[in-house]
Design a protein that fits this description.
The protein is built from 11 helices and 10 strands. It is α+β, with helices and mostly antiparallel strands.
Length: 249
């Protein structure tokens, strides 16, 4: 049996996966992602027939893409749409069509790179001109995120109308506000939050069935379907090779 070397680090508004993964299918998720080839170049497909090989790329939330690591060790840094870093990238994403290539600044050693990655130090990882001051998040959407990130609790099971009521808006107005502030629909973000919580459950139990329950999915088949829709890969191909899952406070 091959030795497990991949690691997953989960924080409140960010996540880091480091290791070797298979090529994905076409997918899009509710979070901007920084893709980095730690041992070589990778291929990124997006849009109608567009493909580039590069050592780093930023892909905005909601952008359908296919990621082929080409057998290299990679790092994937996911930033929640409400994080300061993600909001500082929004203007640049809008100007560049949602995909930015070769965005990483030179880092002298792999040890220094790993330190920057695990500290989520984007100013050190990215060319500085990419990060701009972003607008503050609407407080009504910020409140809804507190519910959505706790799907196992009663509040987390509120339907869209319930979240809208808390925000004192109609369901349609709230959904419009949520998309404008987060860049993705409420439905997409709800699934994303459940998948994140399921992965956090791996810190307690390595069983994917337990992870599915931790994310409040109906069963492991439902979890697998939503995971593949979110990441373009099966959960077993990405989560079973994990050597370590770290939850940040």
């Amino acid at each position: 049996m091959p030795q497990r070397t991949n690691t997953l680090t989960l924080g409140t508004d960010r996540a880091l996966y480091v290791g070797e993964i298979p090529a994905t299918g076409w997918h899009c998720h509710a979070s901007p992602v920084l893709l980095m080839g730690l041992s070589g170049r990778f291929a990124l497909h997006w849009g109608p027939g567009r493909v580039e090989t590069c050592r780093s790329a930023l892909v905005d939330a909601g952008v359908e893409h296919l990621f082929d690591p080409c057998g290299e060790v990679v790092a994937l840094v996911y930033l929640e749409p409400d994080s300061l870093e993600a909001r500082s990238l929004r203007n640049m994403f809008q100007r560049q069509g949602g995909v930015l290539l070769d965005v990483a600044a030179p880092v002298r050693t792999r040890a220094a790179m790993d330190a920057c990655l695990h500290a989520f130090d984007l100013p050190s990882l990215l060319h500085c001109h990419l990060l701009e001051a972003g607008p503050p998040l609407d407080p009504r959407v910020a409140r809804s995120l507190q519910f959505l990130r706790r799907p196992q609790e009663e509040q987390g099971r509120l339907a869209r109308a319930g979240l809208a009521s808390v925000a004192q808006l109609s369901a349609s107005r709230f959904n419009h506000l949520f998309r404008a502030e987060m860049g993705v629909s409420l439905r997409s973000y709800r699934v994303w939050s459940q998948v994140r919580l399921a992965m956090a459950g791996l810190a307690v139990s390595p069983r994917l069935t337990d992870a599915a329950l931790h994310g409040d999915f109906a069963d492991s088949a439902h979890f697998s379907r939503m995971f593949r829709q979110t990441f373009g890969m099966t959960p077993s191909s990405v989560l079973k090779p994990l050597r370590q899952v770290t939850l940040l406070g």
